[in-house]
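Appendix B, example 12.
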Amino acid sequence: MRGRAMIGVAGLVVAVVLLYLLRDVILPFAAGLALAYLLDPMADRFERLGLGRLAASLLILALFVVALGLTLLIVGPLVAKQATALVSTLPGMVSKLQGLVVERAGPLLQRIGGADIINDLQSSMGTLVGQGGSWALSVLGSLWTGSQTLLSIVSLLFITPVVAFYILLDWDRMIAKLDSWVPPRHRFVVRRLGREMDGAITGFLRGQTLVCLILGTFYAVGLFAIGLNFGILIGLVAGLLTFIPYVGTIVGFLLAVGVALVQFWPDSDWLHIGLTVGVFALGQFLEGNVISPKLVGDSVGLHPVWLMFSLLAFGSLFGFLGLLIAVPVAASIGVVVRYGIDRYLQSPLFHADEPALLSAPEPRER
């Protein structure tokens, strides 16, 4: 037993080291594997309708590539244009926000701490914005260099669909082969854990992807409808970051309210500022009470704190590749840990008889 455990730990360590050393080369293959994994249920449905596996795989990949291409052609230029405009106007917006804060809260701040507190506030706001921008650029830069050191965007776009096609074509045979390698006495447990991992991963990835798309579309359309500058970009960013619990809402809300204050507050247009807040309030209500319970549910077993830690840790170690594998690894670890706890609770170690407690001596009568 100890020897098998040592072999398993050694294999895990070797796999992690190889993954770290080859993280730039593995990226398109990991992306292709993830794409095939997500599209396999659709291929199975097409097979049940009478299509062969080859035809179903070709059809699904063709539809995916066409949908992705159309999305990039339609949304890409608009998002790029708004992103460029937002970056160029960000310093002016920050200065305007500082002026608005000093103008509205200046008398109160002077009564509290005099003129020094106003100067400190302006300085701290500028420093905070500068540090936040530097941090965002460093994170994006690390993801970029971590994922594109040896591969260009073009090679990634070409290799990933090819890998996804071949894996999708051979998916059932690969699973059957892996199942045949499991010792017969352990197959029941391994299959049970595999089903639980598959349910946790697919339930979260497919459900959360739909949540991100729905919320991103809702925020973008809502902010665009009320006339907010960069509304489409802010809405899409908020929807995309919804994949990380609470981060999407907080980032999108702060960006939207900051832009709304600069755009509408000088004219005392509180209606549009209130509508901006209302878009995010309604989006959060729909997400918490309608969208997430229906699409994700409570059976995934991924705690928000564990998910955020996994995304940050794997993203820091492996770049964009880490973001791809963070959720599957976190879900798999969660399933194994829950199984281990269940075994412990059913084991003699937990149910061992406790020594009989010595009865306390009765007090003597005086």
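Residues 146-151, 356-360 have pLDDT under 50 and may be disordered. The longest helix spans residues 53-113.
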